[in-house]
Amino acid sequence: MAIRTIFSMAEDCARGERLGWVEFVRDFAGMARTLLAQYFPTLVPELDEHVVAVFRRAGTQTPQRANTGPPPHRSKTGFAGDPGCAGDPAVRGWFSGLTFTNEREFMMAFRDLVFAYGREQERVPAPAIALEQVRAITQDLSLLERELLWLYIKGYDAQRIAAIMMNAAATAEAVQRIADERLAALVPGPPPQRSKTGFVGDPGGVPEALTASPTPGRENRACWGPRFARVLMELAEQSKTEQCVSLKTFNNLVNGQISWRERELAEEHMSNCFCCIDRFTTFQEMVRLRKDVTALAAPQVEAILRELPFAAAKPRGVLSRLFAGR
Ligand SMILES: [Zn+2]
Asked: How far is the CA of 246 from the centre of ligand 1 (A)?
């Protein structure tokens, strides 16, 4: 049997072939679930339906190629978007417009798909907060401390942050104390109540019961409020510039496969760029999620696939290709 890779999975999904969708749902449903629960807590009561909707979106969404820079090209490793299939109705939505060179880049694209869905679904009033306010309270912090603080904003606690950043828990705890004080000062309105675990509650947020999630470490989660996190993350994304660090460089940073000079240049840019701090911490978050989230069991995969009629095609065998060629 041929060796299955993330590239063969994506190719099969693009063609609506069942095997690809089985693998995609099996390996990524848990990730979609965790991300939606963490960042879009009002969707939690119907979480299963929303997870199905994310996959439906992946199978039917018209690809957006307008602002993705150079046209997709076929990579040496296999799948990287296929311009030759642009007019082929058998090629499916989101996958056909996708370019990635490794699994981590695929995970980042998937994460963006989940967020695009979540942002459309959860329309809650955005709290008034500006990136400049965060910039002001982090002036004296190092790049690493800024990254840790950004992860507190995203709602993680010290233990989880240390796991995500592959960093000493003591460093994360030290930054938690700083974050705790300084972020409290940013929350508008009456002084927020300090939670046992450190962070402050979100006074206008959703009831605490709704924010419960299966994320490891989340039980002790300090909750500054996912709504604040989402506003700041969107503002950070909008501040993207031409100089922003590529996913390839993020991957080299995580792997330690980068020259001293390259690292210095990347870190110099990142320390003053919230877009890169957001993307880099997200990159690390996804690497961690990939390790922690378990694959879905076969019956659960089947239950989701039943909701996705476009994912039912049998693999195209030699015979069917012969007939199709007539
Ligand atoms: Zn940047």
From this structure: 9
